[in-house]
Amino acid sequence: MIGFLARRVALTIPVLLGVATLVFSLIHLIPGDPAQAMLGESASPQDVVELRARLGLDRPLIEQYGRFLRGALRGDLGQSLRTNQPVTAAILERMPATIELAAAAMTVAVALAIPLGIAGAVWRGTAIDHAATTLSLLGISIPNFWLGPLLAIVFSIELGWLPVSGRGTWAHLVLPAISLGAALAAILARMTRATLLEELREQYVIAARARGASRARAVLRHAFRNSLIPVITLIGLQFGAVLTGAVITETIFAWPGIGRLLIQSIGFRDYPLVQGCILLIAVTYVGMNLVTDLLYGLVDPRIRYE
Amino acid sequence: MTRVGATIVLIAVLAALVGPRIARFDPAAQELAKRLDGPSATHWFGLDELGRDIFARVLAGARISLLVGIVVVSISTIVGTLLGSIAGYFGGLVDEAISRVIDVLLAFPGLLLAIALVAVLGPSLTNVVLALSLIGWVGYARLVRAQVLRAREFEFVQAARALGATTPRILARHIIPTALPAVTVQATLGMGGAILAEAALSFLGLGVQPPTPSWGTMLDGGRTHLLDAPHLTIFPGLAIALLVLGFNFLGDGLRDALDPVTGRRP
What we know:
By secondary structure, chain A is mainly α. Chain A is built from 14 helices and no strands. Chain B contains nine helices and no strands. In chain B, helix 2 runs antiparallel to helix 3, helix 6 packs across helix 7 and helix 7 packs parallel to helix 8. Chain B is elongated and about 75 Å long. Chains A and B meet through helix 1, helix 6, helix 7, helix 11 and helix 12 of A and helix 3, helix 4, helix 7, helix 8 and helix 9 of B.
């Protein structure tokens, strides 16, 4: 088991290095002079030279790269060009809001998906299954940047039940969480249905029924429990989609998280902050994938010996 | 469901091809006096904040969406199939190098890398296509690599090799065709994904720029008028959802038809 853990962690290191390299390269992909692009066309040559020196862009590329990596390891990602606040501090300030939204969205997704997936599998081929499948496909196809405004039109503007934007109370969380969690719910429901269908064909389910277990018990206590492993893995793997979706959801509902910070920074051409947000989201995603992988190995011994 | 999907896609293609010619209004023509007017017999989907006919703009937006979908999926499929088959067939260092690049690109969730690339390259249709293609090929490469790893051990491939067939010929004539059904399914679902991604980028102000009618840009314009003119939001969003649903239905249907296991299930 320790060998498996060490192998998986070791495999993550080059990926993280690649991620950091790509994020570092972003600033050098800016067409023309990055410092000029950040300050705009009207900036004086003196300001451009100063910014270039401040960001270290006048140093050799390899030195810039070394500085970036050392800084990233220490959690020092430079300063915001607009507010002069350290990038790490600006991101940490917004992080609780994004974690709150992501957790709520995932809770909504699981609460919707599991009953839908079970219903689809148990009543396979019936109207209930078709309805569940269509709902899932709708969930995947409806973009959250449309679902969000639609929910706001109905529940905030027409019915006046929930606030249309901002953060503060539980009521503020409802619409963003549903808007962000709907697509994940759809994917999870499809996965739950598919894996449960596989399990329901297994001999042990038939054996449980033969021993007198009720249909509900055979499904929920036997088949469903075994179908949970791939579903839980998918939840972990979909965390990244939730983080990216949060960029859009936070923009729609003026939710003060990292996603909104990223889009605002792009608007202000605050590239150190853009790099910081991208790096943090990608590293969190890699971390979540690693944890999912390790948990999967813990639960299923076959994975460890691959 | 496959038929429903195919019908939706066909309607969208027709709308993109002949829509702007049969539409009663120019998508750029403004009637400022009637701005934000709701749907009526004259303007089926109403008018936007600049008094432009939303129906005409939705039809014109279909062109952008399908164009982005086709170009992104074509580039991604070709590059992904090529690199995936090279990695799978040759193995060793080449496979290691390509696989590590794939690992790094997959470390960025979904749209994030596209957002980052467009943020630095600047918002435009070309940069959206470039960014989505740069991340799009990865899925195809992984899929094809796995198929090729399996296929290169097939007896007919070994027979072709024994008969003296060249590597490009073995790849093109014998190995890549075995991956084509899976690639076709992925490409169909990828069309929906690319259309959704373009709309998302345009919605965030990072994609197609106004006044070009793109569904994402139209949705972005509607955000400030949710209270007084919800039709600005409803119709472009409905168009995106329907077209993506169409490609998802079609992709699902193709997968069931081409998969020897699920294809036989009742």
